[in-house]
Amino acid sequence: MSALQDVIDEKIAWFWNYRLPELVERDLSLGRPVVPAVGNRVKVVVGVRRCGKTWRLYQEIAYLLREGVDRRHILYFNFDDERLRPYDHLLPSQVMERFYTLSPAARAGAYLFLDEIQDVPEWGVFLRRMVDTESIVCYVTGSSSKMLSTEVATEFRGRATSYELTPYSFGEYARAHGMTEVARDLYGPFTEQERLDLARMCGEYLREGGYPEAQGMDTIERIDMLQDIAANVVAADVVERHDFGSARIARMVCTQCLATSARKLSVTRLHNQLRGRGFSIGWDSLVALTGYLEEANILYRVPEFTTSVAENSRKASKVYANDQSLMIAVSSAATADVGLSLETAVYLELRRRKQFGRKNQVMSYAVREGSSVLEVDFVEGDALLGETTSLVQVSVSLEEPSTRKRELRALCAAMRAGGVTEGLVVTVGERDQIQVPEGTVRVVPAWSWLLGREG
Predict the structure, then answer these.
(1) In the chain, what is the greatest distance between 2 CA atoms, to the nearest angstrom?
(2) DSSP per residue, 332-364
(3) What percent of the chain has pLDDT over 70?
(4) Would you say residue 310 has pLDDT above 50?
(5) Residue 369: enclosing H or E segment and its boundaries?
(6) Rounded to an integer, what distance in angstroms lies between the CA atom of residue 292 and that of residue 150?
(7) In what order do the strands lie in the sheet with 362-369?
């Protein structure tokens, strides 16, 4: 028996004897569970490293076990194991051969949970063969957003569904911190104490973020862990995967992008800054680098509604960290303010709600009014058709008259331009309904909106 076979057998047996941990239920639905059969669609769960993909698989496995599925008909296998490297394209086939040898009855119908498979060569070819020939249900995870789009579409030709998992939403955060029923109930009335608790907890969420591993850590430990996440993403998903020449430049650019969350990032300005500090990188290489970071799901670039049809990579666009805590972890105390954290959290929630829509359905909006350019943080709609469906502005507070005037002016201009009669302002704690000539502007506290309570 080879050393590799020993490792494979050990990992298979480990899961069969593993007691699943107590889980914080994630809201990401992976669809209705199906029975094993030839031709079932592959379900692909993608997200940044350490956002909870493995535990989301455990959640699905726990459901199957409660439904009476024999554990030996379930294969859970994590490919992110140094003992399996260097990866050979035959590795997944070897894993299946050992699984069927150790559990012959599973050939009649098996549930496969293949974790972090994206670095194995020809993983898609293997899975396509399995789907076409074996009676299985297959779940796959990976840390590259290419698995969410290009690779999945190419490899499976319509035979796979992709799901994006992010760090905790606020509802999941509240659930993780003991408010299980409140976080789950979107429609029942809250008591006054529950509202106070949720408002306090929302403030903590904006500071601490949603990485499952970070929950309960003190500030120094949390920041250190988050910085490690960013460093590991750069090392594994940028430098190693794309053979990027300078790890130092990659780390610097990642830090700058994360620290710029909720603001515009000009690649040209970033390029000039790097050159001014003595770092040599071509402009095209820098554009590619920011793309690699987005592929790794550690940040997202958001185009303007008016320019998203023909995006120009030289034009500054807003960027958002994949969790507000990452922005805080790499920022100075002077820049890690609640407004940027709130806007980042709102973008991420909009992204979760639009998961199955077309790319770039959530955009920023700039409206010219005379000599002024008025900005609205988010517009949802279809830039190809020029359609606006909703407008969302984010502001810590509207109590200051000048702030109120500025935010409402921009929102009203966008309502006129988009032909919509309702706008939304998400604040830290205010609730109001403002009648304007264009229609109605609703002001809602962040804790309420992040839970889906938009009224």
Answers:
(1) 78
(2) -TTT--HHHHHHHHHHHHHHHHTTTS-TT-EEE
(3) 90
(4) no
(5) strand 362-369
(6) 14
(7) 362-369, 372-382, 387-394, 422-427, 439-445, 432-436
